[in-house]
Amino acid sequence: MPDLATPLVAWYRDNARDLPWRRPGFSAWGTLVSEFMLQQTPVSRVIPHLEAWLERWPTPTALAAAPAAEAVRQWANLGYPRRALWLHRAAVEIRDRHDGVVPRDVDDLLALTGIGDYTARAVAVFAYGERHPVVDTNTRRVIARAVAGRSQPAAAARRDLADMAALLPDDTAEAVVFDAAAMELGATVCTARAPRCDACPIAHRCAWRAAGYPDTGDTRRRQARYEGSDRQARGAVLRQLRDAAEHAIPAETVVADWPDPLQRDRAIDSLVADGLIEASDGMLRLPV
Predict the structure, then answer these.
(1) Is 51 a catalytic residue?
(2) What is the mean pLDDT of the chain?
(3) Burial label, 24 (beta-carbon count in 10 A; 0-12, 13-18, 19+)
(4) Catalytic-labelled residue, pool 35, 93, 174, 278
(5) Burial of 266 by CB count in 10 Å (0-12 exposed, 13-18 middle, 19+ buried)?
(6) CB of 119 within 8 A of CB of 136?
(7) pLDDT, tens digit (0-9, with 9 covering 90-100), for 137-158
(8) Which of 3, 61, 71, 214 measures 20 to 30 Å from 154, CA to CA?
(9) How many CB atoms lie within 10 A of CB 2?
(10) Domains of the chain, residue spans
C-alpha cells in the first residue's frame, strides 16, 4: 500500500473545516448524534439541527426520558426520519445498559439500535481516540482512486474496512487524524463529479491520476427521484402529524389532497410498519 497518511495528515491539519464535532470537548453523545444526522444529509443542513438537538437533549438520558414522538418532531426536515426513532431507542439502551454513558467499545456500539460498522467506528475513533478504520462514501472514493485506480468506488462492502486498515498509521493518534483526513479529502477535494486534483496532497501518489483518469464506470445503486416518490408522500404525512395541534388526527384528513390516494395510503401503512406513526380507531399520531 502507498504511504498516503504522511501527506494527507499534514494537509488535514492545515485545511480541515471547523465543524462542531471536531472541536475540543465535544461530547461522545454529540458525536453519536452528529453521525446519525450526517447519514445521507449534507453538513450545512445538519449543523443547526445538531445544535438545537443537543441544547434540548444534552445527554442520552435526557433524550431517553422524552417521548419518541418528540424525537421525530425535533428531527423536522432532516429526512430519513427512522433515524430519529433509532436514535431515541439507542438513547434508551445507553441509559439502561451503560449508565447513560456512550460506550467506547465497537461491539457495544454495534449492539445499539441504528448503529452499523461506520457509525460504531466513527464514535470509537472520533469521540474516544481509538484506533480503527473508519470508512464512509468519501473515504471509499479516495481509496478507489488513489489505491485501486478506479474513477468511482464499488458498492460498500466489508472489505472496505480491510482496505482502510492497511493504510492506517501504526500510531494511534495519527490513525485518528488519518481517518478524518481521508473523509475530508473526499468531501472537499476528491469529490465525485469534479475532483480538484491540483489541490490534492496525494495527487503524486494517486493510481487513478497515474493511469490517465480512466472512466471505470459507476456500479453504485442510484437513489430514486424524490419528486413524486413514496418518500415524498411519507414526508408529507409526517410533516402534517408533526405540525398538528392535536395529539392525534383523523386518518382521512392526513394529506387528503395528495394526488395519488393509493400512494398516500401506502405511505401511511409503511410509516406505521416502521413505527414512525401509530394508528388507532381511525386516528393517526406520532409514536408515544
Answers:
(1) no
(2) 92
(3) exposed
(4) 35
(5) middle
(6) no
(7) 999 999 999 999 999 998 777 7
(8) 3
(9) 12
(10) 27-126, 230-285
Work out the number of other CB atoms within 10 angstroms of the CB of residue 195: 22
Cα–Cα distance measured from residue 119 to residue 284, given in angstroms and rounded to the nearest whole number: 32
Each residue's pLDDT tens digit, 71-106: 999 998 888 889 999 999 999 999 999 999 999 999
What's the topology of domain 230-285?
Answer: Arc Repressor Mutant, subunit A (1.10.10)
The whole model's pTM is what? 0.85
CA distance linking residue 257 with residue 226, whole number of Å: 19
The DSSP 8-state label assigned to residue 3 in this structure reads -
pLDDT at 1: 62
Instruction: Judge contact between 65 and 56, C-beta under 8 A.
Output: no
Decide if 27-126 and 230-285 have a common fold. no
CATH classification code of 27-126: 1.10.340.30
- Full strand arrangement of the beta sheet holding 278-280: 249-250, 283-285, 278-280
Length in residues, the chain: 288
